[in-house]
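Incident log, support desk, overnight shift.

02:14 A customer reports that sequence design results differ from what the structure should imply. Their input is reproduced verbatim below. On-call engineer (initials T.W.) acknowledged and began investigating.
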């Protein structure tokens, strides 16, 4: 396969010098070389040459050329490509998982689920495409849903394969061609993903990848008039910049941004189930998850029992080597993320929150990499910085409430609205509470997923939706033809 050219295994260092443009691996025009660092011990495991504006423009030109034909493909043709992509990604689940563990420090027990969810995005898109009425007619009017054009896909580092699969599945289903700019912290994972797409045999120019910095490659995608749409997963600040700068060329945008998700523990909850569920929600993906349930809202009457239950349940969340299937919490992705989390833990203590478990510094025996102590704060007020800002690490804030109405008010008292959870025994009551939470998804009694259900945020958590039919609509324009 052509990929041998992109990664050369030297002694121990992997070297990536190419982008994938117009159906071929091409040497980078950009010359900046970035180290790929293993988060478990801080050693350099690879080097990647980053692309520049010229690489990006070449990729956009290829995607624009390919769109002329690909934009006119039928539902059946696109469905066939989605099936090929599903087969190709499914065949590489283990390789993608291994790359996520090595390069990002994702724990293998979670990384595999993430990658499998990515593979499942393709059949979900195929189903969504099948159900979407791309053509409707009445009288002398015909309404069609047309692919929006060349799409720029920009992803974050914390679940790279999933984001690429989700965005690519929607774009291909809609008939768009793409230029992908993955997080520069995900280059090894991206190489495996490129190999998958090569194996799926998409037409030349339909899928292009430029690895590079956001402010260079991402910015070129955002301002280039030949890119019709940006689908972005990342931070609020960058998302706002894309919306603002994209306005100059009237970009369509989908923004999947941050969260500070509430988990409401109702007073009838069975703590033996609810606390482990709340900790999974908070600590999944080592806390580096946009959906992480980092505010646990607990009835005052049950606070002391909850503290005891958290102490006991934390034993099931050991820190360690992410390749070990018994480990629940791996390192943070980078020194920058490690420092960011430490500063939030310090801030929480300064603001008067009490450390129930964890705290500052490395866990004992894990001083070499970017490991942090999973930390649970109690006595947290919702207005504290640690309860309002996204920390993006394994830090949980326990906030006490008086009544159900109080819990709903606190849950909604956030600029974010991506994800939420309700834990309780009376299912009717849990549903009633869930229906009052202003966020894109609410799960009841534990983390769960559905590739057909929309994903996306209210408020600062974003604009638009991904997954299945909802995700595909974001890559389509509606055209009406009327005969007189
Ligand atoms: P980030 O915003 O720093 O980077 C995301 C991507 O944007 C990267 O590829 C980056 O290179 C690129 N970028 C940076 N500057 C850019 C610019 N000026 N123009 C265009 N692109 C630019 O985010 P991150 O640190 O990689 O990821 C963490 C954030 O992502 C968190 O806030 C998290 O909540 C969010 N996230 C959201 C979801 C979701 O589905 N809502 C999922 C995962 C992560």
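02:41 Re-run completed on a clean worker. Output:
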């Amino acid at each position: 396969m052509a990929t041998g050219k992109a990664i050369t295994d030297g002694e121990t260092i992997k070297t990536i010098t190419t982008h994938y443009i117009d159906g071929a691996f091409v040497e980078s025009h950009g010359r900046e070389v970035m180290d790929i660092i293993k988060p478990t011990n801080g050693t350099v495991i690879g080097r990647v040459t980053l692309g520049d504006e010229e690489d990006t423009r070449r990729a956009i030109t290829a995607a624009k050329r390919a769109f002329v034909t690909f934009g006119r493909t039928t539902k059946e043709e696109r469905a066939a490509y989605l099936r090929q992509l599903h087969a190709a990604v499914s065949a590489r689940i283990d390789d993608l998982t291994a790359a996520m563990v090595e390069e990002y420090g994702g724990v293998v027990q979670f990384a595999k689920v993430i990658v499998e969810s990515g593979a499942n995005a393709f059949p979900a898109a195929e189903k969504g495409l099948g159900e979407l009425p791309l053509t409707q007619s009445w009288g002398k009017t015909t309404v069609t849903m047309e692919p929006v054009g060349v799409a720029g896909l920009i992803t974050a580092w914390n679940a790279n394969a999933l984001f690429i699969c989700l965005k690519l599945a929607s774009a291909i289903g809609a008939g768009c061609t793409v230029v992908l700019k993955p997080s520069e912290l995900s280059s090894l994972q991206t190489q495996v993903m490129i190999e998958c797409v090569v194996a799926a045999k998409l037409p030349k120019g339909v899928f292009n990848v430029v690895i590079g910095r956001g402010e260079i490659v991402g910015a070129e995608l955002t301002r280039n008039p030949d890119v019709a749409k940006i689908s972005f997963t990342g931070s609020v600040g960058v998302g706002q910049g894309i919306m603002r700068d994209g306005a100059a060329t009237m970009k369509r945008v989908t923004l999947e941004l941050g969260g500070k998700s509430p988990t409401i523990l109702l007073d009838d909850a069975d703590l033996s189930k609810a606390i482990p569920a709340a900790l999974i929600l908070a600590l999944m993906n080592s806390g580096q998850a946009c959906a992480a349930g980092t505010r646990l809202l607990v009835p005052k009457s049950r606070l002391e029992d909850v503290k005891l239950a958290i102490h006991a349940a934390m034993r099931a969340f050991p820190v360690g080597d992410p390749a070990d299937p018994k480990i629940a919490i791996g390192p943070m992705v980078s020194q920058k993320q490690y420092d960011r989390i430490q500063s939030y833990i310090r801030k929480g203590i300064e603001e008067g929150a009490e450390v129930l478990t964890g705290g500052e510094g490395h866990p004992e025996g894990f001083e070499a990499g970017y490991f942090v102590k999973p930390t649970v704060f109690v006595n947290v007020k919702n207005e504290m910085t640690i309860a309002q800002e996204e920390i993006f690490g394994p830090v949980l804030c326990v906030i006490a409430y008086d009544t159900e109405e109080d819990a709903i008010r606190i849950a909604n008292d956030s600029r974010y609205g991506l994800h939420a959870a309700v834990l309780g025994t009376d299912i009717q009551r849990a549903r009633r509470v869930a229906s009052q939470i202003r966020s894109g998804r609410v799960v009841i009694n534990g983390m769960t997923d559905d590739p057909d259900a929309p994903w996306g945020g209210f408020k600062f958590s974003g604009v638009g939706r991904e997954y299945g039919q909802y995700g595909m609509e974001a890559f389509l324009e509606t055209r009406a033809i009327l005969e007189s």
